[in-house]
Every structure is written in C-alpha cells, then in structure tokens.
Amino acid sequence: xxxxxxxxxxxxxxxxxxxxxxxxxxxxxxxxxxxxxxxxxxxxxxxxxxxxxxxxxxxxxxxxxxxxxxxxxxxxxxxxxxxxxxxxxxxxxxxxxxxxxxxxxxxxxxxxxxxxxxxxxxxxxxxxx
Length: 129
Description:
Blueprint: H1 2-10, H2 18-33, H3 42-49, H4 55-68, H5 74-80, H6 98-107, H7 115-121
C-alpha cells in the first residue's frame, strides 16, 4: 500500500505502469484472502482501488466493499458509500462514490487526484487525509 502511495503521489509514477498495477492486484488478492478481518483492510483496499485501471479490478473492489460494508465506521463509509446511480447523462447504472469519481477522472486522462480534492469537488467534507 505504501509503495503505491509513495510511487504515485510523491514520485509521480503513473498508475498505468506494470509496477503499480501489479501492486494493485496483490492488494486485491490479499484483501480477498483476508476478508474475515475487513476493518484492517479498508485503507489498503481504498489505496489500491483508487488506482484500478480496468473494469475487472474495479468490479473486484466493489465486491470487496460489499463484503466489508458491515464493518465500516461511519467516517470511512463516507469514502465508499453508494448514494445514488451515476449521473444520468453518462447512461451508466454504476454507483456514485469517491472511487467512481477517481476512476472517471483517470479514464478521461486526468490521472490520480488527491482524496481531499475529490471530496471537495464532490461537495463532501474532508475529514480524512
């Protein structure tokens, strides 16, 4: 998890590199294996999830959130909660969340965006950084 954060945020390594995508996959595999202890795995899942570039891994993240959901504290739930369907103009039925906003920006070529910027842009209070 720290490798992904340091590489993408400090060293400005693109999330599309094999190094980062390999780390993303490793975290998702470990989260799947350890899903009986989800509270301790939420931040690695958020870190890896925010760098997922393909739909297969993004769906995996969504499935893991469903498994972990009963264990979230309220503040962390804000970071991943599904609150309504994605904007109608996108014609998608996926759920709107900070991760979906991150994925949308990455798909449009904007690259990784800091959590605090995403939350402010979405009109959410920034309580975690």
